[in-house]
Write a structure and sequence with these properties.
Layout lengths: L2 E4 L9 E7 L6 E2 L4 E6 L4 E5 L4 E6 L6 E3 L3 E6 L4 H4 L2 H9 L24 H6 L3 H10 L17 H9 L50 H16 L2 E9 L1 H18 L5 H15 L6 E3 L2 E3 L6 E3 L1 E3 L2 E3 L2 E2 L7 H17 L12 E5 L18 E5 L2 E8 L2 E15 L5 H16 L2 H5 L2
Parallel strand pairs: 12-16, 16-17
Antiparallel strand pairs: 1-8, 2-4, 2-7, 3-6, 4-5, 6-8, 9-19, 10-11, 12-15, 13-14, 17-19, 18-19
Helix pairs in contact: 4-5, 8-9, 8-10
């Protein structure tokens, strides 16, 4: 009797997810605990493992369908083999001509052959699953030029990636030695065309639009950010910080630090420690509102925004105020790697009392970050660039960074917000403060 594959528990308060991609096809062998599908939840992607070893015989839901925790999405036959589960057509073809060379089978009427005519393009695009659509947009490939290897000739994510990696450069427009025809000069009585862009005849009719359903993660991000704007009395205060001292410290100790701890010394550890120091003076920045009460925390759990293939995620560095520089850097590096691999868990991103977002890694000069509820403040870091500043009455070039603190004015007064940001600035410009808790 086939074994049901059920949607696993997805975390506290999460009752359903979206089946983003099938990793195994019907007829393929699977090992026990081998992932057969990817689910998207409000926060993370979760792999669905096979409970037993056998052959995947049925897929009960389609990519893009919403599925509840505990729902049966597939069936595994423990007694079946790959050959027994193979399609009957393949077996028939093998017995028809066992000795001679195999002929290329003609596609059935319901199969999607490679698109050769313009009127077929739209039909081809509509068959793309959400995961394949995202891959097409990410790798900038034309799906109509790729032959699918999936069921009924449909494209898979692997087809798109393979096409992107083996992309053929366009051939030269003319053979060696050939000359392009020269444009004919306009007659004297002809008037020059008016300035401005003109439509290219070759592009007429090739304009397209595509509608792609928002991922569950993107829907959640959109909803929570809008809730923050609607609920919090949000305000942002700015300051700038001279990064000379931190850059000098990193340059002096980076080799020794990496040799001892096995991790590079980055800027983020300095800012996490600076925020922990400042939060001791201004505890409201590390607090939250629950109903008509203010909840103060004697610990600092910092949500660090890191980049993932499907957008920014914010795993939590817990007890950051009690961690060493090396512990902070190792934790952030581990989260960054797992974010790219898609292996972050719901627990990794649950909680957090304060957020740090570094838009500078993407080149941002200045921004107004949005609070991550129920937190009451977020620090935005930005790119470092040399700017003229006055030091000791002289104009000098210094590596400067703009800092932005967005905060909930219902809980944090302007004086407190400015003081917190000044404390961070002082600690970064004089890192010795971090060592002596000043």
């Amino acid at each position: 009797m086939p074994t049901d594959v059920q949607v696993p528990a997805l975390g506290e308060s999460i009752t359903e997810g979206t089946l983003a991609q099938w990793l195994k096809k019907p007829g393929e062998a699977v090992a026990a605990d081998e992932p057969i599908a990817n689910l998207e939840t409000d926060k993370v992607s979760v792999e669905v493992p096979s409970p037993v070893a056998g052959v995947l015989t049925e897929q009960l839901v389609q990519e893009g369908d919403n599925v509840a925790v505990g729902a049966v999405i597939a069936r595994i036959d423990e007694s079946a083999t790959v050959s027994a589960a193979a399609p009957a057509e393949a077996a028939a073809a093998a017995t028809t001509n066992p000795a001679g060379p195999a002929e290329t089978p003609l596609p059935r009427e319901d199969e999607h052959a490679p698109v050769a005519e313009a009127e077929q393009d739209d039909d081809h695009i509509t068959t793309l699953s959400p995961a394949v659509r995202r891959a097409v947009l990410e790798y900038h490939v034309d799906p109509s030029k790729i032959r699918g290897t999936g069921k009924d000739g449909r494209l898979t994510k692997d087809d798109v990636i393979a096409a992107a990696e083996g992309r053929i450069q366009p051939s030269a427009p003319a053979e060696a030695g050939a000359q392009a025809p020269q444009a004919k000069a306009p007659a004297p009585e002809e008037k020059a065309p008016p300035p401005g862009p003109r439509p290219s005849p070759g592009n007429i009719g090739e304009r397209r639009e595509e509608r792609v359903k928002m991922t569950r993660l993107r829907q959640t991000v959109a909803r929570r950010l809008k809730e923050a704007q609607n609920t919090a009395a949000m305000l942002t205060t700015f300051n700038d910080v001279d990064m000379s001292a931190v850059i000098e410290a990193r340059t002096r100790y980076k080799d020794l630090f990496e040799k001892k701890h096995g991790i590079r010394l980055g800027f983020m550890a300095f800012f996490v420690k600076a925020c922990a120091l400042a939060a001791k003076d201004i505890p409201a920045v590390n607090a939250s509102i629950e109903g008509d009460e203010i909840v103060y925390h004697d610990y600092l759990d910092v949500s660090i925004a890191v980049s993932a293939p499907k957008g920014l995620v914010v795993p939590v560095v817990r007890n950051a105020d009690r961690m060493t520089f090396a512990d902070i850097e190792k934790t952030i590096a581990d989260y960054g790697k797992r974010a790219k691999d898609g292996t972050l868990t719901v627990d990794d991103m649950t909680g957090g009392t304060f957020t740090i977002s570094n838009g500078g890694v993407f080149g941002s000069l200045l921004s107004t970050p949005i609070i991550n509820p129920p937190q009451s403040a977020v620090l935005g870091m930005h790119r470092i660039e040399e700017r003229p500043v006055v030091v000791g009455g002289q104009i000098v070039a210094r590596p400067m960074m703009y800092l932005a603190l967005s905060y909930d004015h219902r809980l944090i007064d302007g004086r407190e917000a400015v003081t917190f940001l000044v404390r961070v600035k002082e600690a970064i410009e004089d890192p010795t403060r971090l060592l002596i808790d000043l």
